[in-house]
Specification:
Blueprint (H helix, E strand, L loop, with lengths): L1 H14 L16 E12 L3 E3 L3 H18 L4 E3 L6 E6 L11 E6 L2 E6 L2 H12 L11 E11 L5 E7 L7 H13 L4 E5 L1 E2 L2 E2 L8 H4 L3 E2 L17 E2 L4 H12 L4 E8 L4 H6 L19 H5 L21 H17 L4 E5 L6 H5 L1 H9 L5 H18 L3 E5 L12 E4 L4 H8 L4 E3 L2 H4 L20 H5 L10 H4 L2 E6 L9 H8 L2 H10 L7 H17 L7 H12 L1
Parallel strand pairs: 2-3, 2-4, 4-6, 8-9, 8-19, 9-14, 14-15, 15-16, 16-17, 17-18, 18-19
Antiparallel strand pairs: 1-7, 5-6, 5-7, 10-11, 12-13
Helix pairs in contact: 2-3, 4-6, 9-12, 19-20
The chain binds acetamide and zinc ion.
Acetamide (ACM) binds next to loops.
Length: 556
């Protein structure tokens, strides 16, 4: 048996001999990397040595990866000196660079030392990229001697997923979280409520999901549609599923930021509880192509078409705020995240202009107009969240009537809102439609239906999250960036991956790697290996034929 292992080892050494001189194709590119001469042979006998319970958790995540990708796991022990992957977290270090790690490959094994548990976890993600990018029967993997010192450029490295327009089961959300981890992303923005569906169980308000999670149909094709599919559609996450997803993410050092939309994008909540509207008796406008079932129903309904809707939460009633605080109480119990997103975007003020209660509120609070009423709305929710020790995030519309005092702004209508907020000394997360809206096409004349727009890979790669309009001091308010995946035209997991890949790999490098090491030519070369990894991960990425060509070229 020993002999067999030896022969396999010899064969793989030949197979991976090229790696000795080749550069390592790591994405995102580490801060510094020094390749030595020689290699460590990782075998099934290699032991993961970790003493700390948190590091042992990371070892389990690594083992899950090995199992999925290659079909084996490694033993985990407290100590091992001959053939090891050693994980240690130097909690005593007061490092200037947050979440740094050092990875060293030597004769007897791999050592990963993180300044934090998240740092050690990132080191494991780098180690994953030192393993073969293809499924292999080899009994051992050769890993070149290397010393890597690495840390992230931005503290907020995010990906968003809209589960309102289309619903993705918790099992798929976990796979999405796996992709974030593999890209050293650390925030998952879970867009949980929309006009077309409310997706999170709230025990105090069961109709939010018994009514609000279901629509009677969906428009066909581009808005306003060529018809309606008349298929009842929906779904929601139970609180147990939410807890499970949040824990799964936490085990991967990813914070889940929930978004509960207000005051707009609230048709589903209003369908469940019509008194949340300024005009509870007014029938919902279902657009040009309502389903047959919704034509038969009167009153408030869950939306079946896309867009921006006038029926929003009434800002004049205290019962609206009581409802939202009660919802938040359950949300806060599920999500430990410091940041809680309350939306705030695309809230037409037409109902507020006509509503006696909203107008009375404006008068009573001495507000100038409906924009200031929106500020009142968001500020009132912010006070509540702050009293519970949380920080509010809102889309850049929350700037319009004046910012709530401690709010973080997510800049989506370009960078203008983000620049303005940073100048006002507010933290900012940059998510400009161009280039980080991943619902936009990656190629002109895409054969698949998308919302429109054009955000190709190189545009994402060349994105700079700190606008030049900011001084160095102001630039510090930019916490990072995030790509958003709105799902009007993304109905199933394979399409999620088609939209997200390969752009997520480009964004990962924008957010992690120092600006000086970013290089488009070099990134494209490394992408050849990344495309192999996508195949290993069974990802349905965009432009497979082109990727095959790139892979072939890089091997020749
Ligand atoms: C947004 O895209 N409405 C934030
Ligand atoms: Zn009102």
């Amino acid at each position: 048996m020993k002999q067999v292992i030896f022969i396999f080892a010899a064969l793989t050494q030949v197979a991976f001999a090229q790696q000795k001189t080749a550069t390592l194709n790591i994405i995102p590119q580490p801060v510094s990397m020094e390749i030595g001469k020689g290699q460590f042979m990782l075998t099934k006998k290699t032991v993961i040595a970790a003493r700390d319970e948190e590091d042992r958790k990371t070892a389990r995540v690594f083992n899950d990866y090995l199992q999925q990708a290659y079909g084996f796991r490694l033993d985990v022990d407290r100590q091992e000196t001959k053939n090891y992957i050693r994980l240690t977290t130097r909690k005593f270090i007061q490092a200037p660079e947050k979440d740094a790690y050092a990875l060293t490959v030597g004769k007897n094994g791999v050592t990963i030392e993180g300044d934090t548990y998240a740092g050690t976890f990132s080191g494991i993600q780098t180690l994953i990229q030192l393993l073969p990018p293809v499924k292999t029967q080899a009994k051992s993997f050769s890993i070149p001697f290397v010393t890597i010192n690495d840390y992230p450029r931005f503290a907020y490295r995010g990906m968003h997923l809209d589960v309102g327009r289309h619903f993705f089961p918790a099992s798929y959300v976990k796979r999405y979280i796996d992709f974030l981890a593999l890209h050293k992303m650390n925030y998952f923005h879970w867009h949980l409520t929309e006009d077309q569906g409310w997706r999170i169980e709230i025990k105090k308000y069961p109709r939010l999901t018994s009514v609000g999670a279901w629509r009677d149909g969906t428009i066909i094709g581009h808005h306003p549609g060529t018809g309606n599919d008349n298929q009842r559609y929906g779904g929601f996450y139970t609180q147990n599923e939410v807890k499970d997803v949040v824990q799964y993410a936490a085990d991967r050092h990813i914070t889940v930021v929930p978004e509960i939309e207000m005051p707009g994008h609230s048709s589903a909540a209003i369908a469940a509880y019509p008194w949340l509207s300024c005009f509870p008796d007014k029938e919902t406008d279902m657009g040009k192509n309502p389903s047959e079932a919704s034509k038969q129903k009167r009153g408030k309904k869950v939306q079946e078409t896309w867009g921006v809707f006038e029926d929003i939460f009434c800002a004049g009633k205290d019962s609206t705020f009581l409802f939202l605080q009660n919802v938040m109480d359950e949300v806060l119990a599920l999500f430990p995240s410091k940041y809680i997103h309350v939306g705030g975007d695309e809230a037409p003020k037409s109902n507020w202009q006509k509503c006696p209660l909203c107008q009375a509120r404006i008068k009573q609070e001495g507000l100038k107009n409906e924009h200031e009423l929106q500020t009142y709305f968001i500020t009132r929710m912010e006070k509540y969240l702050n009293s519970k020790g949380r920080t509010l995030i809102g889309w850049d519309e929350i700037l319009e009537g004046g910012l709530a005092p401690n709010a973080v702004v997510m800049s989506w209508r370009g960078e203008k809102g983000g620049i303005e907020a940073a100048k006002q000394k507010h933290n900012v997360i940059m998510t400009p439609g161009n280039p980080v809206y991943f619902d936009h096409a990656q190629v002109k004349n895409d054969d698949s239906l998308t919302i429109g727009g054009f955000n190709p890979l190189d545009a994402v790669y060349n994105y700079e999250p700190v606008p030049k309009e900011l001084t160095a001091e102001e630039g510090k308010y930019v916490l990072g960036s995030q790509a958003n995946l709105w799902t009007e035209y993304v109905g199933f997991p394979a399409k999620v991956e088609y939209m997200v890949f390969p752009r997520m790999s480009a964004l990962a490098e924008v957010l992690w790697s120092p600006k000086e090491v970013r290089n488009w030519e070099d990134f494209q070369k490394r992408m050849a290996t990344q495309y192999q990894r996508y195949d290993l991960w069974k990802v349905n990425y965009f432009n497979k034929p082109k990727a095959a060509e790139i892979k072939k070229k890089s091997i020749m």
